[in-house]
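Work Package 4 report. The design task specified in the project plan requires that, given a folded chain encoded as C-alpha coordinates, an amino acid be chosen for each position. We show below one input record used in the internal validation round.
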Protein backbone atom coordinates (compact mmCIF):
# COMPACT_ATOMS: atom_id res chain seq x y z
CA UNK A 1 0.00 0.00 0.00
CA UNK A 2 1.37 3.43 -0.96
CA UNK A 3 1.88 5.96 1.80
CA UNK A 4 -0.55 8.87 2.06
CA UNK A 5 0.31 12.25 0.61
CA UNK A 6 1.54 14.79 3.17
CA UNK A 7 0.09 18.31 3.18
CA UNK A 8 2.32 20.89 4.89
CA UNK A 9 0.79 24.25 5.79
CA UNK A 10 3.34 26.88 4.76
CA UNK A 11 1.12 29.73 3.58
CA UNK A 12 0.88 31.94 6.68
CA UNK A 13 2.65 35.25 7.19
CA UNK A 14 4.10 34.28 10.54
CA UNK A 15 3.29 37.71 11.95
CA UNK A 16 4.45 36.81 15.45
CA UNK A 17 7.89 35.87 14.12
CA UNK A 18 8.35 39.01 11.98
CA UNK A 19 10.58 40.68 14.57
CA UNK A 20 13.30 38.04 14.08
CA UNK A 21 12.50 36.49 10.67
CA UNK A 22 11.14 39.14 8.30
CA UNK A 23 12.68 38.40 4.90
CA UNK A 24 11.36 34.86 4.32
CA UNK A 25 8.20 32.89 5.15
CA UNK A 26 8.26 31.34 8.61
CA UNK A 27 8.95 27.75 7.40
CA UNK A 28 12.16 29.01 5.75
CA UNK A 29 13.50 30.43 9.02
CA UNK A 30 17.08 29.30 9.49
CA UNK A 31 17.77 26.50 11.96
CA UNK A 32 21.40 25.55 12.30
CA UNK A 33 22.16 27.15 8.93
CA UNK A 34 19.32 25.68 6.86
CA UNK A 35 15.55 26.27 6.45
CA UNK A 36 13.34 24.70 9.11
CA UNK A 37 11.17 23.24 6.33
CA UNK A 38 14.08 21.06 5.20
CA UNK A 39 13.99 19.30 8.58
CA UNK A 40 10.32 18.45 8.07
CA UNK A 41 10.85 17.22 4.52
CA UNK A 42 13.73 14.94 5.46
CA UNK A 43 11.79 13.50 8.38
CA UNK A 44 8.89 12.66 6.03
CA UNK A 45 11.24 10.95 3.61
CA UNK A 46 12.82 8.95 6.43
CA UNK A 47 9.39 7.68 7.52
CA UNK A 48 8.46 6.48 4.04
CA UNK A 49 6.44 9.40 2.67
CA UNK A 50 7.22 9.99 -1.00
CA UNK A 51 4.73 12.71 -2.07
CA UNK A 52 4.35 16.12 -0.43
CA UNK A 53 2.01 18.99 -1.23
CA UNK A 54 3.15 22.36 0.10
CA UNK A 55 0.10 24.54 0.82
CA UNK A 56 1.54 27.97 0.04
CA UNK A 57 0.30 31.53 0.07
CA UNK A 58 2.48 34.30 1.51
CA UNK A 59 5.72 34.60 -0.52
CA UNK A 60 4.93 31.30 -2.24
CA UNK A 61 7.66 31.86 -4.81
CA UNK A 62 10.36 31.76 -2.11
CA UNK A 63 9.06 28.41 -0.85
CA UNK A 64 9.16 27.00 -4.39
CA UNK A 65 12.66 28.36 -5.04
CA UNK A 66 13.94 26.77 -1.82
CA UNK A 67 12.37 23.31 -2.30
CA UNK A 68 12.08 22.88 -6.05
CA UNK A 69 10.58 19.61 -7.24
CA UNK A 70 11.75 17.78 -4.12
CA UNK A 71 14.50 15.73 -5.77
CA UNK A 72 17.10 17.02 -3.30
CA UNK A 73 15.09 15.31 -0.54
CA UNK A 74 14.15 12.21 -2.54
CA UNK A 75 10.52 13.41 -2.62
CA UNK A 76 7.96 14.52 -5.18
CA UNK A 77 6.88 18.02 -4.17
CA UNK A 78 3.71 19.65 -5.54
CA UNK A 79 2.55 23.20 -4.84
CA UNK A 80 -1.00 24.25 -4.03
CA UNK A 81 -1.10 28.05 -3.99
CA UNK A 82 -3.97 29.96 -2.40
CA UNK A 83 -4.75 33.32 -4.04
CA UNK A 84 -6.23 34.64 -0.79
CA UNK A 85 -6.07 33.29 2.81
CA UNK A 86 -8.17 30.12 3.13
CA UNK A 87 -7.25 28.98 6.63
CA UNK A 88 -5.88 25.55 7.55
CA UNK A 89 -9.00 23.71 6.40
CA UNK A 90 -9.55 25.77 3.26
CA UNK A 91 -5.96 25.28 2.16
CA UNK A 92 -6.32 21.51 2.59
CA UNK A 93 -9.60 21.56 0.63
CA UNK A 94 -7.87 23.38 -2.25
CA UNK A 95 -5.40 20.49 -2.53
CA UNK A 96 -8.07 17.76 -2.28
CA UNK A 97 -7.41 16.59 -5.84
CA UNK A 98 -4.02 15.23 -4.83
CA UNK A 99 -5.58 12.64 -2.48
CA UNK A 100 -6.69 9.29 -3.90
CA UNK A 101 -10.48 8.72 -4.08
CA UNK A 102 -10.59 6.55 -0.96
CA UNK A 103 -7.22 7.64 0.36
CA UNK A 104 -5.94 9.88 3.12
CA UNK A 105 -3.50 12.68 3.78
CA UNK A 106 -1.33 13.93 6.59
CA UNK A 107 -1.94 17.56 7.53
CA UNK A 108 1.10 19.10 9.19
CA UNK A 109 1.85 22.59 10.46
CA UNK A 110 4.91 24.04 8.76
CA UNK A 111 6.27 25.61 11.95
CA UNK A 112 6.45 22.59 14.28
CA UNK A 113 8.49 19.43 14.39
CA UNK A 114 7.85 16.43 16.61
CA UNK A 115 10.49 13.73 16.64
CA UNK A 116 9.15 10.35 15.41
CA UNK A 117 5.64 11.80 15.00
CA UNK A 118 5.23 10.87 11.34
CA UNK A 119 5.65 7.13 11.91
CA UNK A 120 3.24 7.23 14.85
CA UNK A 121 0.61 9.18 12.90
CA UNK A 122 0.98 6.86 9.90
CA UNK A 123 0.19 3.90 12.14
CA UNK A 124 -3.37 5.25 12.47
CA UNK A 125 -5.60 4.20 9.57
CA UNK A 126 -8.48 6.66 8.96
CA UNK A 127 -11.77 5.47 7.44
CA UNK A 128 -15.14 6.96 6.55
CA UNK A 129 -16.49 5.94 9.96
CA UNK A 130 -13.43 7.19 11.86
CA UNK A 131 -11.95 9.79 9.54
CA UNK A 132 -9.45 11.78 11.66
CA UNK A 133 -6.55 10.92 13.91
CA UNK A 134 -5.06 13.82 15.85
CA UNK A 135 -1.52 13.74 17.22
CA UNK A 136 -1.50 14.81 20.88
CA UNK A 137 1.35 15.63 23.24
CA UNK A 138 1.49 15.50 27.05
CA UNK A 139 2.44 18.82 28.71
CA UNK A 140 2.78 19.90 32.32
CA UNK A 141 0.34 22.80 31.87
CA UNK A 142 -2.29 22.92 29.12
CA UNK A 143 -3.31 26.53 29.84
CA UNK A 144 -1.47 28.03 26.86
CA UNK A 145 -2.69 25.41 24.38
CA UNK A 146 -6.14 24.10 25.30
CA UNK A 147 -6.81 20.59 26.52
CA UNK A 148 -7.74 17.46 24.56
CA UNK A 149 -9.68 14.86 26.56
CA UNK A 150 -10.32 11.30 25.40
CA UNK A 151 -11.61 7.96 26.69
CA UNK A 152 -9.97 4.54 27.00
CA UNK A 153 -10.66 3.84 23.32
CA UNK A 154 -8.69 6.98 22.38
CA UNK A 155 -11.89 8.66 21.18
CA UNK A 156 -11.82 12.41 21.76
CA UNK A 157 -14.57 13.51 24.13
CA UNK A 158 -13.84 17.24 24.40
CA UNK A 159 -11.68 19.97 22.96
CA UNK A 160 -11.39 22.85 25.42
CA UNK A 161 -10.08 26.26 24.47
CA UNK A 162 -7.51 27.81 26.76
CA UNK A 163 -9.56 27.54 29.95
CA UNK A 164 -8.15 24.42 31.59
CA UNK A 165 -4.82 24.25 33.41
CA UNK A 166 -2.47 21.62 34.81
CA UNK A 167 -1.17 18.41 33.25
CA UNK A 168 -2.89 17.05 30.16
CA UNK A 169 -2.73 16.39 26.44
CA UNK A 170 -2.75 19.11 23.77
CA UNK A 171 -3.25 19.17 20.02
CA UNK A 172 0.17 18.86 18.34
CA UNK A 173 -1.03 20.18 14.96
CA UNK A 174 -0.48 16.98 12.96
CA UNK A 175 -3.42 14.94 11.63
CA UNK A 176 -4.13 11.87 9.53
CA UNK A 177 -7.32 12.63 7.57
CA UNK A 178 -9.57 10.51 5.35
CA UNK A 179 -10.46 12.19 2.03
CA UNK A 180 -14.18 12.18 2.94
CA UNK A 181 -13.49 15.00 5.41
CA UNK A 182 -12.09 17.20 2.64
CA UNK A 183 -14.96 16.28 0.30
CA UNK A 184 -17.50 17.63 2.80
CA UNK A 185 -15.84 21.05 3.01
CA UNK A 186 -16.93 24.09 0.96
CA UNK A 187 -14.41 25.03 -1.71
CA UNK A 188 -12.72 28.45 -1.82
CA UNK A 189 -13.95 29.47 1.60
CA UNK A 190 -11.94 30.38 4.68
CA UNK A 191 -12.10 27.32 6.95
CA UNK A 192 -10.21 26.75 10.16
CA UNK A 193 -9.67 23.02 10.54
CA UNK A 194 -9.33 23.45 14.32
CA UNK A 195 -12.25 25.82 14.93
CA UNK A 196 -14.69 24.87 12.15
CA UNK A 197 -14.09 21.24 11.13
CA UNK A 198 -13.05 19.51 14.36
CA UNK A 199 -16.11 20.67 16.41
CA UNK A 200 -18.42 19.21 13.74
CA UNK A 201 -16.57 15.89 13.78
CA UNK A 202 -16.60 15.87 17.57
CA UNK A 203 -20.41 15.68 17.51
CA UNK A 204 -20.24 12.44 15.51
CA UNK A 205 -19.53 9.29 17.53
CA UNK A 206 -16.01 7.88 17.16
CA UNK A 207 -15.08 10.38 14.42
CA UNK A 208 -12.04 11.77 16.21
CA UNK A 209 -9.27 9.65 17.67
CA UNK A 210 -6.08 10.68 19.42
CA UNK A 211 -2.63 9.49 18.42
CA UNK A 212 -0.37 9.95 21.50
CA UNK A 213 3.07 11.12 20.37
CA UNK A 214 6.21 10.36 22.32
CA UNK A 215 8.87 12.47 20.61
CA UNK A 216 10.24 15.85 21.63
CA UNK A 217 8.25 18.86 20.41
CA UNK A 218 9.93 21.81 18.64
CA UNK A 219 8.03 24.94 17.68
CA UNK A 220 9.25 28.06 15.84
CA UNK A 221 5.97 29.97 15.89
CA UNK A 222 7.09 32.65 18.38
CA UNK A 223 10.40 34.54 18.62
CA UNK A 224 11.02 32.92 22.01
CA UNK A 225 10.30 29.37 20.82
CA UNK A 226 12.23 29.94 17.59
CA UNK A 227 15.19 31.04 19.67
CA UNK A 228 14.89 28.00 21.91
CA UNK A 229 14.90 25.63 18.94
CA UNK A 230 17.71 27.35 17.09
CA UNK A 231 19.87 28.10 20.12
CA UNK A 232 18.85 26.14 23.19
CA UNK A 233 18.32 22.84 21.43
CA UNK A 234 21.38 22.92 19.19
CA UNK A 235 23.77 25.51 20.55
CA UNK A 236 22.97 25.28 24.26
CA UNK A 237 23.37 21.54 23.93
CA UNK A 238 26.95 22.44 23.05
CA UNK A 239 27.29 24.90 25.93
CA UNK A 240 30.31 23.25 27.55
CA UNK A 241 33.67 22.80 25.92
CA UNK A 242 33.48 19.13 26.90
CA UNK A 243 30.15 18.60 25.17
CA UNK A 244 31.17 20.51 22.06
CA UNK A 245 34.33 18.45 21.74
CA UNK A 246 32.43 15.19 22.20
CA UNK A 247 29.86 16.01 19.54
CA UNK A 248 32.47 17.07 17.02
CA UNK A 249 34.39 13.85 17.66
CA UNK A 250 31.29 11.76 17.01
CA UNK A 251 30.59 13.73 13.85
CA UNK A 252 33.90 12.51 12.43
CA UNK A 253 32.30 9.07 12.00
CA UNK A 254 35.12 6.91 13.29
CA UNK A 255 34.55 3.87 15.50
CA UNK A 256 33.41 4.04 19.12
CA UNK A 257 35.02 1.80 21.77
CA UNK A 258 33.31 1.60 25.16
CA UNK A 259 34.70 -0.26 28.16
CA UNK A 260 32.31 -2.37 30.24
CA UNK A 261 32.52 -0.06 33.25
CA UNK A 262 31.12 2.79 31.19
CA UNK A 263 28.41 0.83 29.38
CA UNK A 264 25.38 2.21 31.24
CA UNK A 265 26.23 5.90 30.80
CA UNK A 266 27.07 5.39 27.13
CA UNK A 267 23.99 3.30 26.28
CA UNK A 268 21.92 5.94 24.45
CA UNK A 269 24.99 7.34 22.72
CA UNK A 270 25.85 3.87 21.42
CA UNK A 271 22.30 3.30 20.20
CA UNK A 272 22.25 6.56 18.24
CA UNK A 273 25.63 5.91 16.64
CA UNK A 274 24.71 2.32 15.80
CA UNK A 275 21.57 3.57 14.05
CA UNK A 276 23.79 5.74 11.84
CA UNK A 277 25.97 2.79 10.84
CA UNK A 278 28.89 3.56 13.15
CA UNK A 279 30.82 0.56 14.44
CA UNK A 280 30.55 0.35 18.23
CA UNK A 281 32.79 -2.03 20.17
CA UNK A 282 32.14 -2.80 23.83
CA UNK A 283 34.14 -5.04 26.13
CA UNK A 284 36.91 -5.32 28.67
CA UNK A 285 40.15 -3.36 28.46
CA UNK A 286 41.88 -6.37 26.91
CA UNK A 287 39.14 -6.75 24.29
CA UNK A 288 39.31 -3.08 23.33
CA UNK A 289 43.10 -3.07 23.02
CA UNK A 290 43.08 -6.20 20.90
CA UNK A 291 40.46 -4.73 18.58
CA UNK A 292 42.44 -1.50 18.23
CA UNK A 293 45.76 -3.18 17.61
CA UNK A 294 46.96 -2.64 14.01
CA UNK A 295 43.70 -0.89 13.02
CA UNK A 296 43.59 2.17 15.29
CA UNK A 297 42.83 5.51 13.66
CA UNK A 298 42.90 9.09 14.92
CA UNK A 299 39.16 9.17 14.22
CA UNK A 300 38.49 6.33 16.69
CA UNK A 301 37.06 7.25 20.08
CA UNK A 302 37.43 5.33 23.33
CA UNK A 303 35.07 6.02 26.23
CA UNK A 304 36.47 4.76 29.50
CA UNK A 305 36.77 5.72 33.16
CA UNK A 306 39.73 3.36 33.58
CA UNK A 307 42.83 5.50 34.13
CA UNK A 308 45.20 2.59 33.53
CA UNK A 309 43.56 1.84 30.20
CA UNK A 310 43.85 5.52 29.24
CA UNK A 311 47.61 5.41 29.89
CA UNK A 312 48.06 2.19 27.93
CA UNK A 313 46.09 3.45 24.95
CA UNK A 314 47.98 6.73 24.79
CA UNK A 315 51.27 4.85 24.56
CA UNK A 316 50.12 2.56 21.76
CA UNK A 317 47.40 4.20 19.70
CA UNK A 318 46.51 7.57 18.08
CA UNK A 319 42.91 7.43 19.34
CA UNK A 320 40.91 10.15 21.07
CA UNK A 321 39.85 9.27 24.61
CA UNK A 322 36.87 10.53 26.55
CA UNK A 323 38.28 9.76 29.97
CA UNK A 324 39.31 10.75 33.47
CA UNK A 325 40.02 14.27 34.69
CA UNK A 326 43.44 13.28 36.06
CA UNK A 327 44.74 12.95 32.51
CA UNK A 328 43.14 16.12 31.17
CA UNK A 329 46.49 17.75 30.35
CA UNK A 330 46.96 15.34 27.48
CA UNK A 331 45.62 16.82 24.25
CA UNK A 332 44.18 13.46 23.15
CA UNK A 333 41.91 13.19 26.21
CA UNK A 334 38.64 14.95 26.85
CA UNK A 335 38.11 14.74 30.61
CA UNK A 336 34.86 13.81 32.30
CA UNK A 337 33.15 16.67 34.13
CA UNK A 338 31.75 15.94 37.58
CA UNK A 339 28.16 15.93 36.31
CA UNK A 340 28.85 13.62 33.39
CA UNK A 341 25.42 11.92 33.55
CA UNK A 342 23.69 15.26 32.93
CA UNK A 343 26.10 16.15 30.14
CA UNK A 344 25.54 12.74 28.52
CA UNK A 345 21.81 13.50 28.38
CA UNK A 346 22.52 16.80 26.64
CA UNK A 347 24.85 15.06 24.22
CA UNK A 348 22.12 12.58 23.30
CA UNK A 349 19.74 15.49 22.70
CA UNK A 350 22.31 17.23 20.49
CA UNK A 351 22.91 14.02 18.53
CA UNK A 352 19.16 13.56 18.04
CA UNK A 353 18.76 17.10 16.75
CA UNK A 354 21.70 16.56 14.41
CA UNK A 355 20.11 13.35 13.17
CA UNK A 356 16.66 14.82 12.50
CA UNK A 357 18.21 17.95 11.02
CA UNK A 358 20.47 16.44 8.39
CA UNK A 359 21.44 12.93 9.17
CA UNK A 360 23.98 12.73 11.95
CA UNK A 361 27.15 13.21 9.98
CA UNK A 362 25.72 15.55 7.36
CA UNK A 363 24.68 17.92 10.17
CA UNK A 364 28.21 19.14 10.81
CA UNK A 365 28.47 20.47 7.26
CA UNK A 366 25.77 23.06 7.87
CA UNK A 367 26.68 23.87 11.46
CA UNK A 368 29.03 26.85 11.37
CA UNK A 369 30.38 28.58 14.44
CA UNK A 370 32.23 31.64 15.55
CA UNK A 371 35.89 31.04 16.39
CA UNK A 372 38.86 32.90 17.84
CA UNK A 373 42.10 32.96 15.79
CA UNK A 374 45.37 33.99 17.45
CA UNK A 375 48.92 34.47 16.27
CA UNK A 376 51.43 32.60 18.46
CA UNK A 377 54.71 34.48 19.00
CA UNK A 378 54.17 37.72 20.90
CA UNK A 379 50.47 37.00 21.33
CA UNK A 380 50.05 33.64 23.05
CA UNK A 381 53.69 33.20 24.10
CA UNK A 382 56.41 35.75 24.80
CA UNK A 383 58.17 36.86 21.63
CA UNK A 384 61.58 35.23 21.10
CA UNK A 385 63.08 35.63 17.64
CA UNK A 386 62.89 32.26 15.85
CA UNK A 387 62.11 30.45 19.09
CA UNK A 388 63.21 26.79 18.96
CA UNK A 389 63.64 25.64 22.58
CA UNK A 390 60.88 24.59 24.98
CA UNK A 391 62.79 26.25 27.84
CA UNK A 392 62.21 29.65 26.19
CA UNK A 393 58.42 29.28 26.11
CA UNK A 394 56.45 31.60 28.38
CA UNK A 395 52.68 31.80 27.96
CA UNK A 396 51.41 35.37 28.36
CA UNK A 397 48.82 36.15 31.04
CA UNK A 398 46.53 38.16 28.77
CA UNK A 399 46.41 35.20 26.36
CA UNK A 400 45.45 32.89 29.23
CA UNK A 401 42.65 35.30 30.19
CA UNK A 402 41.30 35.54 26.63
CA UNK A 403 41.48 31.82 25.90
CA UNK A 404 39.76 31.02 29.21
CA UNK A 405 36.92 33.36 28.31
CA UNK A 406 36.60 31.75 24.89
CA UNK A 407 36.63 28.26 26.44
CA UNK A 408 33.87 29.23 28.88
CA UNK A 409 31.80 30.68 26.05
CA UNK A 410 32.22 27.52 23.96
CA UNK A 411 34.11 29.43 21.24
CA UNK A 412 36.81 27.28 19.61
CA UNK A 413 40.34 28.71 19.67
CA UNK A 414 42.88 28.25 16.88
CA UNK A 415 46.49 29.39 16.76
CA UNK A 416 47.85 30.17 13.28
CA UNK A 417 51.55 30.92 13.13
CA UNK A 418 54.16 31.59 10.45
CA UNK A 419 57.25 29.42 11.01
CA UNK A 420 59.56 30.32 8.14
CA UNK A 421 62.44 29.44 10.47
CA UNK A 422 61.88 25.83 9.43
CA UNK A 423 62.16 26.71 5.76
CA UNK A 424 65.19 28.89 6.45
CA UNK A 425 66.90 25.99 8.24
CA UNK A 426 67.13 27.82 11.59
CA UNK A 427 65.40 24.96 13.44
CA UNK A 428 63.80 21.59 12.75
CA UNK A 429 60.25 20.29 12.82
CA UNK A 430 61.19 18.49 16.04
CA UNK A 431 62.21 21.83 17.58
CA UNK A 432 58.93 23.39 16.48
CA UNK A 433 56.87 20.60 18.05
CA UNK A 434 58.80 20.79 21.33
CA UNK A 435 57.83 24.47 21.58
CA UNK A 436 54.24 23.59 20.65
CA UNK A 437 53.97 20.92 23.35
CA UNK A 438 55.37 23.20 26.03
CA UNK A 439 52.95 25.99 25.07
CA UNK A 440 50.00 23.59 25.32
CA UNK A 441 51.26 22.25 28.64
CA UNK A 442 51.46 25.74 30.13
CA UNK A 443 48.04 26.67 28.80
CA UNK A 444 46.53 23.50 30.26
CA UNK A 445 48.19 24.11 33.63
CA UNK A 446 46.49 27.53 33.62
CA UNK A 447 43.09 25.91 32.97
CA UNK A 448 42.67 26.67 29.28
CA UNK A 449 43.35 25.04 25.93
CA UNK A 450 43.32 25.62 22.17
CA UNK A 451 41.45 23.47 19.69
CA UNK A 452 44.24 23.29 17.11
CA UNK A 453 47.56 24.91 16.20
CA UNK A 454 48.41 25.38 12.51
CA UNK A 455 51.73 26.59 11.13
CA UNK A 456 53.19 27.59 7.79
CA UNK A 457 56.80 26.51 7.10
CA UNK A 458 56.82 28.33 3.75
CA UNK A 459 59.97 30.19 2.72
CA UNK A 460 60.44 31.08 -0.94
CA UNK A 461 64.22 30.48 -0.94
CA UNK A 462 64.15 27.36 1.19
CA UNK A 463 66.47 24.46 0.41
CA UNK A 464 63.74 22.12 1.66
CA UNK A 465 61.41 21.33 -1.23
CA UNK A 466 58.42 20.79 1.05
CA UNK A 467 58.80 24.35 2.39
CA UNK A 468 58.38 25.87 -1.07
CA UNK A 469 54.72 24.87 -1.32
CA UNK A 470 51.72 26.30 0.45
CA UNK A 471 52.40 29.98 -0.05
CA UNK A 472 48.73 30.79 0.54
CA UNK A 473 49.01 29.29 4.03
CA UNK A 474 51.63 31.83 5.04
CA UNK A 475 50.13 34.98 6.52
CA UNK A 476 49.05 37.46 5.17
CA UNK A 477 47.51 34.72 3.06
CA UNK A 478 44.35 33.25 4.56
CA UNK A 479 45.08 29.60 3.76
CA UNK A 480 45.35 28.41 7.37
CA UNK A 481 42.10 30.18 8.29
CA UNK A 482 40.11 28.78 5.39
CA UNK A 483 41.48 25.32 6.14
CA UNK A 484 40.22 25.58 9.73
CA UNK A 485 36.86 26.90 8.53
CA UNK A 486 36.41 23.96 6.17
CA UNK A 487 37.42 21.22 8.61
CA UNK A 488 35.85 22.64 11.77
CA UNK A 489 32.79 24.29 10.19
CA UNK A 490 33.72 27.83 11.22
CA UNK A 491 31.97 30.98 10.05
CA UNK A 492 34.91 33.30 9.37
CA UNK A 493 32.70 36.36 8.97
CA UNK A 494 31.58 36.19 12.60
CA UNK A 495 34.96 35.08 13.96
CA UNK A 496 37.72 37.10 15.67
CA UNK A 497 41.41 37.43 14.79
CA UNK A 498 44.19 38.90 16.95
CA UNK A 499 47.88 39.31 16.19
CA UNK A 500 50.80 41.63 16.76
CA UNK A 501 51.87 42.15 13.14
CA UNK A 502 50.26 43.59 10.05
CA UNK A 503 50.45 40.17 8.39
CA UNK A 504 48.23 38.70 11.12
CA UNK A 505 45.33 41.08 10.66
CA UNK A 506 45.75 41.08 6.90
CA UNK A 507 45.36 37.30 6.98
CA UNK A 508 42.11 37.72 8.90
CA UNK A 509 40.96 40.47 6.57
CA UNK A 510 41.74 38.34 3.50
CA UNK A 511 39.81 35.46 5.04
CA UNK A 512 36.70 37.59 5.57
CA UNK A 513 37.00 38.08 9.33
CA UNK A 514 35.40 41.34 10.42
CA UNK A 515 36.57 41.56 14.05
CA UNK A 516 40.31 42.23 13.79
CA UNK A 517 42.62 43.20 16.67
CA UNK A 518 46.23 44.39 16.40
CA UNK A 519 48.23 44.09 19.61
CA UNK A 520 50.83 46.85 19.83
CA UNK A 521 54.35 46.25 21.03
CA UNK A 522 56.67 44.39 18.69
CA UNK A 523 57.16 45.94 15.27
CA UNK A 524 55.64 47.58 12.22
CA UNK A 525 54.20 50.47 14.23
CA UNK A 526 54.89 52.77 11.26
CA UNK A 527 52.14 51.13 9.20
CA UNK A 528 49.48 51.09 11.93
CA UNK A 529 47.73 54.26 10.79
CA UNK A 530 47.67 53.06 7.17
CA UNK A 531 46.45 49.63 8.24
CA UNK A 532 43.60 50.88 10.42
CA UNK A 533 42.54 53.48 7.87
CA UNK A 534 42.01 50.84 5.22
CA UNK A 535 40.58 48.34 7.71
CA UNK A 536 37.99 50.34 9.57
CA UNK A 537 37.09 47.27 11.59
CA UNK A 538 40.65 46.71 12.90
CA UNK A 539 41.06 47.87 16.48
CA UNK A 540 44.41 48.63 18.14
CA UNK A 541 44.75 47.09 21.59
CA UNK A 542 47.44 47.14 24.27
CA UNK A 543 46.66 43.60 25.43
CA UNK A 544 44.25 40.78 24.70
CA UNK A 545 42.10 41.54 27.73
CA UNK A 546 40.53 44.31 25.65
CA UNK A 547 38.97 41.80 23.25
CA UNK A 548 35.28 41.32 24.17
CA UNK A 549 34.17 37.69 24.40
Amino acid sequence: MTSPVAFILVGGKGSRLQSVVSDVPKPLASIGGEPFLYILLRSLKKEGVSRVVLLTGYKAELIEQACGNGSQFGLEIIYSVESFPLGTGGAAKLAEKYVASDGSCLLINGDTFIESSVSEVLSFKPSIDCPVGMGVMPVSNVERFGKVEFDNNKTITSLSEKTASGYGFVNSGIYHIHKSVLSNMVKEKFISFENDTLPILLEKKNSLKVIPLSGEFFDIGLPSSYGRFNADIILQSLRTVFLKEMLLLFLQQGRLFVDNDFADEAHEIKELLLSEGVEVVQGSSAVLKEKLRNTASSRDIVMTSNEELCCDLLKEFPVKIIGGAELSLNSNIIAFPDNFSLVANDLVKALKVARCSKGLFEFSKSYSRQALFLDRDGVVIKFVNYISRASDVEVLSDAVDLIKRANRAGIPVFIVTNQSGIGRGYYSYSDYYSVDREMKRQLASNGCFVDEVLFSDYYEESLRSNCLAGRSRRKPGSGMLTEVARRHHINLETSLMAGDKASDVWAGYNGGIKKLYLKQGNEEQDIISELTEEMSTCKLIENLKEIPI
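Confidence is low (pLDDT under 50) at residues 15-20, 222-228, 235-239. Validation will be extended to a larger panel in the next phase.
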